[in-house]
Design the sequence.
């Protein structure tokens, strides 16, 4: 129940101690994890962290702005190869990361242009075409992709005496924390409101001073930046990339993660990434079942829990908060 | 000349349909002008041309002596025109407050970095303006509610509030009391009257309900089948034989 009646009261209620305590626990678990879990699980957690960034980017576009993209694999490839070349030319890790994100963001702006005219399924097809085109370009243009042998990327040098696996985990989790925080701030700023306004009623958004061209392209740029960084981080953990990695399945995976995790939810993006990483691991002996699991889960989510895993969690939490009075 | 809004010989066609034909209307600063007419007479189309949603086939629209044709809707809003919609167009999944905050969008000092770094100064400044409007429209109890969960009457008020949040000089209201109960209609009429008194905003209003329209308006224009058939004081227009014929024919 929302009984807050005045602005001042509202500000006082802004500090939610429950959320804080929970956040503390999560942080503790995340820091302790590589010391209690075996290396292969730490590696999987690293993958979840980097996928979370890509899913968040996709969620900014789909969940918040209401634009669709099935061409995410294209941005992943662009980010990964830009990163690979930058690293090979001697750029330090963080600089190469920003470079990869920026190149992907520029590509995102280009891909965003059809969104000014096309909606729904038409936009989906246009972006799908982009993903396929990028794939073909990398497959056929050996200067970009490093030819048959692909691109080899030097491993990160661990610091603070950490093992390589743990070091990579901490770096990636830190990056995820940064992206999560930035995303929270973004979606609660005037930019995020403009995105949601476009999603809910584009004409009304325009009539209230939101420039559709600017904000749709901005959404594509931001989302592609995230995806480019995802591609770069993926390239870094793999240590070796070739174009075949970034096929259409990757686009579908990111889309699935958004729907299952929760549309327009940051926490949901992380849960969605967890899902799409864990399912293929759990079903590693029946790989051909993975798309079936995705399909069935999406159906179940759409039927029973349109808010995704995060919506389920919200309801559970509400249940416990109201517990004695239920 | 010197009128706030000047619509000159405006025509609009959709394929074979003529929505507006050579319509001229001007609104002086500070007045409230009502546009009346039966359903399908082109009232909403007129608003859509003024706010840049439709591109007229011929004619001109000038706001403060500047042509608005060819500008995007957001650019027109920045000039100082705001509107509401006949069939509400709200941001359904946002709170009432956030809907109003979108109305503040054009007044934000925009800096992408501050958006990423949670600089709250601008937020608080604009939130204060929204709170004034929330208080004015008695929206306090629902400020944090999702708009989709609010009753129709409240939604209409939210849309009015959102338009006010842009701080317009000219406010276009498309059937602001349609679908409301009698009590709500009276309240809305009071608010619309107050908007002019308190904020000094010029109002151009489309209204099907002649009683409310004549109560609020200084002047009235009647459309029928996209053609202006009468103009004058509310009493004059309502007595006009063409207007009576148009309304009877409905
Ligand atoms: N987007 C559109 N496409 C085709 N016809 C339209 C469109 N918008 C309005 N019209 C037509 O223009 C005429 C005037 O409509 P409208 O301006 O909505 O009237 P009012 O608001 O007075 O009821 C109607 O005949 C309507 O069918
Ligand atoms: Mg109408």
Sequence:
């Amino acid at each position: 129940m929302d009984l807050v009646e005045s602005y001042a009261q509202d500000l006082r209620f802004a500090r939610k101690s429950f959320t804080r305590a929970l956040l503390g626990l999560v942080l503790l678990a995340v820091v302790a994890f590589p010391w209690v879990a075996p290396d292969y699980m730490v590696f999987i957690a690293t993958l979840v962290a980097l996928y979370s960034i890509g899913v968040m980017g996709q969620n900014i576009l789909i969940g918040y702005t209401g634009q669709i993209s099935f061409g995410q694999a294209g941005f992943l490839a662009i980010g990964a190869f830009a990163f690979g070349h930058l690293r090979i030319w001697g750029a330090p890790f963080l600089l190469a990361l920003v470079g990869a994100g920026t190149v992907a963001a520029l590509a995102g702006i280009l891909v965003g242009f059809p969104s000014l005219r096309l909606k729904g399924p038409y936009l989906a097809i246009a972006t799908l075409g982009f993903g396929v085109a990028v794939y073909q370009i990398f497959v056929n243009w050996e200067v970009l992709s490093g030819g048959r042998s692909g691109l080899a990327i030097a491993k990160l040098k661990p610091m603070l005496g950490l093992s390589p696996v743990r070091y990579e985990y901490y770096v990636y989790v830190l990056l995820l924390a940064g992206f999560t925080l930035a995303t929270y701030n973004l979606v609660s700023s005037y930019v995020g409101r403009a995105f949601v306004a476009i999603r809910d009623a584009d004409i009304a958004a325009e009539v209230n001073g939101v420039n559709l061209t600017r904000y749709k392209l901005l959404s594509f740029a931001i989302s592609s930046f995230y995806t480019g960084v995802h591609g770069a981080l993926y390239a870094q953990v793999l240590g070796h990339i070739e174009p075949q990695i970034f096929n259409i399945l990757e686009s579908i995976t990111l889309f699935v993660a958004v729907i299952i995790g929760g549309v327009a939810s940051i926490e949901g993006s992380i849960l969605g990434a967890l899902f799409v990483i864990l399912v293929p691991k759990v079903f590693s002996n029946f790989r051909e079942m993975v798309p079936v699991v995705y399909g069935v889960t999406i159906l179940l989510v759409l039927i029973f829990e349109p808010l995704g895993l995060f919506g389920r969690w919200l309801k559970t939490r509400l249940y416990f908060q109201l517990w004695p009075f239920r | 000349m010197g009128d706030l809004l000047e619509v000159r010989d405006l025509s609009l066609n959709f394929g074979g349909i003529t929505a507006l034909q050579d319509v001229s209307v001007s609104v002086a600063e500070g007045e409230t002008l009502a546009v009346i007419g039966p359903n399908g007479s082109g009232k909403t189309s007129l608003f859509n041309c003024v706010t840049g949603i439709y591109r007229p086939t011929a004619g001109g629209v000038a706001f403060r002596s500047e042509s608005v044709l060819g500008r995007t809707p957001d650019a027109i809003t920045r000039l100082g025109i705001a509107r509401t919609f006949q069939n509400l167009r709200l941001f359904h999944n946002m709170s009432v407050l956030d809907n109003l905050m979108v109305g503040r969008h054009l007044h934000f000092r925009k800096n992408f970095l501050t958006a990423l770094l949670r600089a709250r100064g601008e937020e608080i400044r604009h939130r204060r303006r929204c709170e004034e409007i929330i208080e004015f429209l008695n929206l306090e109890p629902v400020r944090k509610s999702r708009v989709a969960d609010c009753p129709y009457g409240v939604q209409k008020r939210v849309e009015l509030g959102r338009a006010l949040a842009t701080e317009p000089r000219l406010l276009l209201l498309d059937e602001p009391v349609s679908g409301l109960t009698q009590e709500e209609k009276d309240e809305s009429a009071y608010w619309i009257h107050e908007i002019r008194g308190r904020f000094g905003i010029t109002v151009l209003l489309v209204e099907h309900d002649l009683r409310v329209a004549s109560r609020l308006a200084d002047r009235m224009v009647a459309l029928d089948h996209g053609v202006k058939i009468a103009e004058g004081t509310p009493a004059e227009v309502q007595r006009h034989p063409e207007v009576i014929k148009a309304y009877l024919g409905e």
Summary: The pocket of adenosine-5'-diphosphate (ligand 1) is lined by residues B 14, 17, 19, 37, 39-45 (CB under 6 Å). Residues 46 and 83 of chain A are 18 Å apart (CA to CA). Chain A touches chain B at residues 2, 4-7, 10, 182, 184-186, 188-194, 196-197, 200-201, 203-213, 264 (CB under 8 Å). Confidence is low (pLDDT under 50) at residues 1-14, 321-326 of chain A.
